[in-house]
Design goal:
The structure is a homodimer. By secondary structure, chain A is α+β, with helices and mostly antiparallel strands. Chain A contains five helices and eight strands. In chain A, strands 1-2-3-4-5-6-8-7 form an eight-stranded mixed β-sheet. Chain A starts with 8 loop residues before the first helix and ends with a strand.
């Protein structure tokens, strides 16, 4: 599944500010924060290789993002279960069985589920699902959800998954991405989404019952593409 | 299905302001706007009959709200289709078939779908569905959706359905009701919800593509119970 020479958007963003050769007309050009990271490759890829059309894998140093396969669920479920059963960050039933959770998470096309995989060991570091947020007149707005294995936190997996979701949504022609229920006390997620260009456009007062903190707000977060 | 002596909350609200005998301790007492309507019955029901536990029907002068039955779908579908196909107010696929739409609308327990029926002719005037908005830590917030047959507009059906949804949510122990995607250009709905005590707690910019107006905002509306 891994594909070479598929530089992550983040790396290209880092280049953008000082890259006079970047095509100015690219309609789906990124507008993510211009952050440099330790994972950014030192080389500058040839422009024609930056966003290969139809690519399904992304390299982030030692991380690859690729389409999830049915076989990936066995690796996703342990940390999915750990995160959801804790009940602190997702509005999912905390007692989902593996089969039920699989149905909630592993989305068929045209929606999409990906995994972030350690490029060396093949370990699944995190996962994301991406989908249309509403139908009908709301079908131009995408949504996405992310889970990172707590045992592999701090590697930038969440950011890489978030950027991949933005890339996917832009490529699919969505005009915006919306998160419907971001738990306000989940500061790492809120901070990550803000740094990805999302803003809080709604606050549901006490919309979430946190097992330790009690009732906390839920944010609706949104980013135009 | 119709039950006698089941006064609508609205009627009781009208009474509240000048009813010294109303129990002050009622934990689920209404806090809806004190509006008097032409439908309010002149008599004052005995306190023990005001909110009969387990009732499923509500009288509103010439209107009854009762649980929807499978047989009701034949009467709901024509105006459901008319409203959804117009694409101006719901984030539903505009090309839903009757069978698909039935699955979207006719909810099994513990969720609920009701119809508002003309008390004399039995004609279905409108319908509402009521459900939990999120699971897990968000399971204490309900949601609801409403449709009124345009051919029967102006009879207070939407308001009666809205009040019934609030009553149901309160009775079921929800702490709030949230509407996730109210089309901002749908002034009658926004006005109705405001008058029922809902506030806009979020605005998704250009979250809805209106067939005539172009991109308009979507509101998240919310009301504590």
């Amino acid at each position: 599944m891994k594909r070479p020479a598929a530089p992550l958007r983040k790396a290209c963003d880092g280049i953008r500010a000082n890259s006079p050769t970047r095509p100015a007309h690219r309609p789906d050009g990124p507008s993510l924060p211009r952050r440099r990271t330790a994972h950014r490759p030192a080389h500058r890829p040839a422009p024609e290789n930056r966003w290969p059309p139809g690519r399904t894998a992304t390299m982030l140093g030692r991380m690859e993002i690729r389409e999830a396969t049915p076989e990936d669920w066995a690796a996703v479920w342990p940390f999915f279960h750990r995160i959801v059963a804790a009940g602190e960050t997702f509005t999912y039933p905390t007692d989902l069985t593996s089969a039920e959770a699989r149905g909630w998470w592993m989305l068929p096309a045209p929606d999409r589920t990906v995994v972030a995989v350690d490029d060396t060991t093949g370990a699944v570091l995190g996962t994301a699902k991406m989908n249309r947020n509403q139908a009908g007149g709301g079908a131009h707005v995408a949504s996405a959800s992310f889970m990172v294995d707590p045992d592999h936190a701090g590697r930038g997996t969440g950011r890489a998954l978030g950027e991949e979701a933005l890339r996917w949504a832009r490529e699919r022609g969505f005009r915006a991405v919306q998160f419907n229920a971001v738990v306000a006390s989940n500061a790492p997620a809120v901070g990550l989404y803000r740094s990805l260009g999302f803003a809080v456009v709604g606050t549901v007062p006490e919309g979430f019952r946190h097992p330790r903190l009690g009732y906390v707000d839920l944010y609706v977060m949104h980013r135009r593409l």
